[in-house]
Amino acid sequence: MARIEPVNEQTLIIYFGDKIDDAIAADVNTAIYQVRDALGDLVTDMIPSYNSMLVGFDLNRTDRFDIIKRIRTALNATTRNVDDDENNVIIEIPVYYGEEVALDMRDVCDKTGLDIESVIQHHSQREYRVYAIGFSPGFAYLGSLDDAIMIPRKSTPRLKVPTGSVGLADNQTAIYPSSTPGGWQIIGRTPLNMVDWESDSLARVNVGNRVKFLPIDKQEFLNQGGIL
After folding, report:
1. Are residues 23 and 79 in the same domain?
2. What pLDDT is attached to residue 102?
3. CATH number at residue 148
4. Confidence band (pLDDT; 50, 70, 90) for 86?
5. Which of 76-85, 123-132, 195-204 has the lowest mean pLDDT?
């Protein structure tokens, strides 16, 4: 059963588990629709994460005790099948894994004992779930990695990771939508812009989507607008 705790007078957090797990992520994604459908504009904001969801509510129209009761009722109710929505959306992301952009590929190979082609194969042959949208618009946390390429973050983060960089950290992979500091192990770069300013979420991918990486060569990377 989900655990609901207050954060402040007009924000709650709903916990669905304590680990990164596909089943828990599916529960979070379903809850988005259950709460949205049942509570409507009483809810002012919803921020899903790996295993929880932050919910803001209109304090002028309800209070903490009422909203918790409504949320519990919503979570216990049947809702429309979300499998036809975000869970079934597969987004293909082209990635160039060339040495000019794969800044940490050699280190990843050294630490995993794999050659470059094997790292690329392990990374690109898997389908990933979008667990959360993170610290900057469009930064999607994707999981889970093949055990063979699980690797910790860099001990010393870079001051500036190039836009579009694809990285590994622990059991996750992610794409840097903009040039920011970061400690993920960079193994490639996508030519795609991961921020969609015309969408409500600003992100090309949303929580619950599936992501598949497609290896491309240097010329295709440049043809699609990639910058080395």
Report:
1. yes
2. 98
3. 2.40.100.10
4. low
5. 76-85
Q: What is the pTM of this model?
A: 0.79
**45 and 146 housed in the same domain:** no
- Alpha helices for the chain (secondary structure H): 22-39, 64-76, 105-112, 116-124, 218-223
- Cβ partners under 8 Å of residue 2, min gap 6: 14, 15, 16, 27, 31, 72, 75
- Is there a single domain that holds both residue 52 and residue 99? no
- 83, pLDDT greater than 70: no
Structure-derived torsion over alpha carbons of residues 207, 174, 109, 102, reported in degrees to the nearest 10: 140
121 Rama sector, left if φ>0, alpha if ψ -120 to 50, beta otherwise: alpha
- For residue 33, the enclosing domain spans 3-84
The reply to whether 228 falls in a domain is: no
